[in-house]
Structures are given as structure tokens and as C-alpha cells.
Amino acid sequence: MSPAEFGRSGDRDDRDEEPLDDTLLDADLFDSPDLDPPSPRRPVDSSTPPLEVADEDLDGLRYDAAGMPVGPRRVLPLPDEPSPLAARYLFPTEKYRGEWRRHWIHLMPEFVIGVLATFIMGYVSGMLASNGSEPATAAVVVGWLLVLGWVGWRVMDWFFDRFILTNKRVMVVSGVVTRKVAMMPLLRVTDMKYEQSPMGRMLNYGTFVLESAGQDQALREIKHLPDPNELYLQVVEEMYEPDAVQARVEGEEETASSPSAVNDA
Asked: Rounded to an integer, what is the distance from CA 84 to the centroid of its chain?
């Protein structure tokens, strides 16, 4: 190897062994503030104001330990006037708070029976018609009509079935021809809970269980009520904070009767 070549190779080895300068790396690669993370050598600029997020922007984004969303509860609106069905069971000094039909899941057995009866009637009547048995086919059709009539009767019974809440008591009115009215004063309720199955949580219905000091209870278990959480809170609020409920009702009435609300209407 010639001296010139040896000298060039020695210079190259010396350059390879030189350590890299960290300051040069920072200046070349991380000069942009978007790429350079905060470090002791480059502190965060304190002049930039922190991002402020309002609490209402986080509604629906908070979750509890059970995985349920946490936020302000929804208050069910209080209706102005009871229906004619409920009004006939209220005394004059009683303050009406609302009435609810049972959830549509209450009619699920009737709907299933009606659908199965329709398929079975179609299959059996087709077989009997192919064999030329007209009396048997007519009997099957009559039986199917009776089943549909029973389903219609159950739907009508569900329509007139109401859960009624006042400032004094809870009532359940049921029946089309034979009317049944079961009630329990709120002052006698010693314990109240509601239960929700997995299906009830998905479809938003539940069962209320009322306990009182007496042994014989005309009203204890009420199944398939809609919006059970909001309805439960409304009943409990009526039991323990009736003045707050009345104040909210009066506030809604004043808002509705204000000149601005009348002009908007």
C-alpha cells in the first residue's frame, strides 16, 4: 500500500471513530416543535394556554366501574292532564304526576302464539284441503280465528292497563270488562326496588317490587314498566322530596305561561 493510500485510509478511520454530537442531532432532526418532545433541555412553552373542556362536552363519555355511562339523569316530563281513564280514579285534592302503559314486551307471548297459530293453520289446512276434508278445514280456520280474537283481546287489555303515579299513591288499573284497581299509598311504602334482566336492559324495561308495613298488599310486583330507572327516581323523589317536585311543576307552568312562550306559540 502506498503512503498516500495509507494516509487516506487513516483519515477515514479517524472520521468514523468521532462521536456524534447530541446537540447537532437535536438541531437537525428535532428542530420542529411538532417533532421535538418535551425534555429537560427543551422545556415546554408555558405561554401556551391549556386546553379547556367544558363538562357538558364530556356528557356521555364518562363511565362507571360497571361500564355504564355517567351523566346528568334524564327527568321524565310531567304531563299536564290525566287521561279520562286515569282521571276517574283520582280524588280532587290529589296531584297527578303521570301514567304509563307497560312495555310492548308484555305482549310478546301473545304475538308468538298468534304467529305460530298462523303457520300451523296454514300447514294443516293445506293438508286437509288436498285430501278433500272440507269440514276439518273449516274447523281449523275457526280455531285460528279464535286464537286471533284472543290475541286482539290481550292487546286491548294491554292498551287499558296503566301504571299511575300521584303525590299520594301509586295505582295499577287493568281490565277491559272486569276493571281492577290496585293501589298503595306512598307513605306506606317501606322499600322499593326494580329489577332488570339482560333483555330488559337492552329493551329498557323492568319490574318494580314494592314492600309495605302491612302483610296483605294489593300491589306488590309490577312487571314490564318502561324507562325503569327514570321512573324509579321519579317515584322515589315523590316519596322523599315532594316539595322539590311541586316546585319543578310550578316552574314549568310559569315558563309555559310566560309572555315569551305565548308569543312563540
From this structure: 29
Domain limits for position 162: 96-253
d(CA 92, CA 102): 26
**Per-position DSSP letters for 139-192, written without gaps between them:** HHHHHHHHHHHHHHHHHHHHHH-EEEEESSEEEEEE-SSS-EEEEEEGGGEEEE
Residue 199 lies in a domain: yes
- Rounded to two decimals, what is the model's pTM? 0.64
What 3 state SS string does 96-149 have?
Answer: EEEEECCCHHHHHHHHHHHHHHHHHHHHHHHHHHHCCCHHHHHHHHHHHHHHHH
Q: Write the CA distances from 34 to 24, 29, 43, integer angstroms.
A: 18, 11, 13
- Residue 241 CA to residue 260 CA, distance in Å, equals 30
* Distance from chain centroid for Cα 28: 56
Q: Tell me if residue 70 falls in helix, strand or coil.
A: strand
Domain membership flag for residue 245: yes
Is 214 domain-assigned? Answer: yes
Q: Which amino acid is at 138?
A: A
pLDDT in tens, the chain (265 residues): 555 454 454 454 444 555 545 444 444 444 544 545 555 555 555 565 555 656 555 555 555 555 555 555 555 556 668 899 999 999 988 999 999 999 999 999 999 999 999 999 988 888 888 887 788 888 888 999 999 999 999 999 999 999 999 999 999 999 988 999 999 999 888 888 889 999 999 999 999 998 887 666 778 899 999 999 999 988 988 888 888 777 877 777 677 666 655 455 5
Domain annotation covers residue 146: yes
Whichever domain contains 234, its CATH number is: 2.30.29
Count of the separate structural domains present in the chain:
1
